[in-house]
Amino acid sequence: MGREKPQQPSSASAAAAASFTVEQLVAVNPYNPDILPDLENFVNEQAASKTYNLDANLCLLRLYQFEPDRMSTQIVARILVKALMAMPAPDFSLCLFLIPERVQMEDQFKTLIVLSHYLETARFRQFWDEAAKSRHLLEVVPGFEQAIQAYAIHVLSLTYQTVPRSVLAEAINKEGLSLDKFLEHHAANSGWVVEKGNGKGQLITLPSNEFNHPELKKSAADGIPFEHITRIFPILG
To answer: Where is the PCI domain (predicted)?
Structure first.
């Protein structure tokens, strides 16, 4: 193609410009194998700049189906790691569906599938133990640990009004001073209420939501403004 390859983004604006260009390519040439190098470069840019574009990654995986000899397993692995970081969105399953079974049988992909299963079933201790054995696969994508910790907190918030320190520590793989600093940060910025002391029995109260406080779901439904309802009627009609 007559287009210059995008350079590694040096700023958020550069990453946004690269994203816009790739989105144009995907929209105009979704089945053109000539855009394979651009999409592969874009996967690496997503990893380096902590950005994410599921549509571009799915397009690349579809192109690999038509051009199996050009498949880069390293790129595919990075796509799956980024998809894990997007949980609870179902991105990992969407990507895996486009990856041939023979490729899924490679050790690195079997590991990622196991990690996905642990996350989906909230078995965080098993997840972190397995992840520790696969750092070479995961650490090439900056922000992985923080993304999974955010997902773990999301899962806990669906279940707990107050969560024991030991349960939180296992879910986010932090303990001691590191956990103390983590709790201080969320107490200051996320509305957490942390019981004084730092023993294993310490309780952390999480912000209320319609899942850990079901009564909020009813009050939210009752509180839909009438003008919103009247806007829906023409759509339904």
So the answer is: 52-211
Three-state DSSP string of 73-93:
HHHHHHHHHHHHHCCCCCHHH
pTM: 0.80
Question: What's the pLDDT at 225?
Answer: 55
Tokens 């994410």 identify what position? 52
pLDDT score, position 211: 75
| Distance of alpha carbon 92 from the chain centroid | 9
Query: Helix, strand, or coil here: 5?
Result: coil
3-class DSSP state of 164 = strand
- Greatest Cα pair distance, the chain, in angstroms, is 63
Q: How many CB atoms lie within 10 A of CB 22?
A: 24
Instruction: State the Cα–Cα distance between residues 100 and 87, nearest whole angstrom.
Output: 22
| Terminal-residue alpha carbon distance, the chain | 48
Backbone conformation region of residue 28, classed left if phi is above 0, alpha if psi is from -120 to 50, else beta: alpha
